[in-house]
Amino acid sequence: MIYSHSRLGTFENCPLKFKFKYIDRLESTIEGIETFMGSRVHETLEKLYRDKRFQKNNSLEELLAFYTQQWEKNWHENIKIVRKEYTADNYKKMGEKYISEYFEQYKPFDQEKTLGLEERVTIDLGLGYKLQGIIDRLALAGSVYEIHDYKTNMNPRSQEELDKDRQLALYSIAVKEKFPDAKKIELVWHYLSIAKEMRSTRTEKQLEELKKEIRLLIDKIERSKEEDFFPAKESALCAWCEFAEFCPRQKHLLETAKLSPTQFRKNDGVKLVNKYVHLESLKREFLEKIEPEIEKARLDLLEYSKQHSIENIAGSDFIARIRCYPHLSFPPEERSEIKRILIESKKINEVLDINYYELAKKLNSKEWDSKLVKKILSHALKNKNVRIYLGKKKNE
Ligand code: SF4
What we know:
The protein has about 400 residues and is of the alpha/beta class. It is built from 14 helices and eleven strands. It has helices at about 5-15, 15-25, 35-55, 60-75, 90-105, 160, 165-180, 205-225, 250-255, 260-265, 270-310, 335-345, 355-365, 370-375; strands at about 5, 30, 80, 115-125, 130-140, 145-150, 185-190, 195-200, 310-315, 320-330, 380-390. Strand 9 (about 310-315) and strand 10 (about 320-330) form a beta hairpin. Helix 4 packs antiparallel against helix 5. The model has no long low-confidence stretch (mean pLDDT about 95).
């Protein structure tokens, strides 16, 4: 697999989305309007600097006309607007404002010489690890190489965060290699929503540490691939996820949200959740009598989750979240051998004398070398703990 900064970021944000996108290669035509608007702004700024290299200066009106043309040419029916209170036109105007303010701020655009636009680079991380990336604009100001990146999101980051940012720092490794005369490289972010430019630099030592960090992250992804372990990681980003209709955490919620109130109440999943919620509410008063009924409702819910590959099931007022945790147990007859392996591999201090709960945590965390993990696991029993959590639904 060819890695890139955005692939790594996708894995960190949600391993399951990474699997959908880069391993299963699921097709999704859904595109968030923020991404769509960002692409059109990038294209317009690329045109500005490309024409400039050919000694053609565009007026602001010409650039805005190009932006509108690109917007209309690329528009498609699967563009998703998550923030329902805003229209496509609001987003189009935001892009126009970003371009106009950038134009006024930097005209006549001769602060530096442009060396590359949408420049594809390969980053050598050492030990055979490589990464690919695309630099929005590479420029030369005097003897300083500058890596420019346009940001169209509404959340500018602090200087402290940018000083630790990975993306442009990684690109600087490739620039250093391509231009051995590059003594100084500046990382430049243009936060277009607030017309603010922010800068940072990296030392050799920081870049070496970054290479190491990324190599470890790639190893982690490769291990996940070997074990086919890509857990879903829910977050606010799920609202923008183009694979939500395939996701076990989202698909039942999305499907049932489209139903009429009568269809919703008749949905099998909804009925099972409502029944389970009802029985749980009676538990305190009638535990003895209804315990078998609760257990049956629980098993029905688990079966429904398994059959339909869904982990979040919508009910009228609650969502049932089915979570399955790997559970390792270590039979007493295997413990002396496990202890011997841990002593031999000098890991014994990490799970002193042996705390089997801590040991299971370590093995599940994927921190240890996979060979060692496999060796210990051959002496363990693999089970699963399945739990149902009921969460109150948020009001729309
Ligand atoms: S909807 Fe959320 S949890 Fe599901 S794949 Fe997308 S980001 Fe991950």
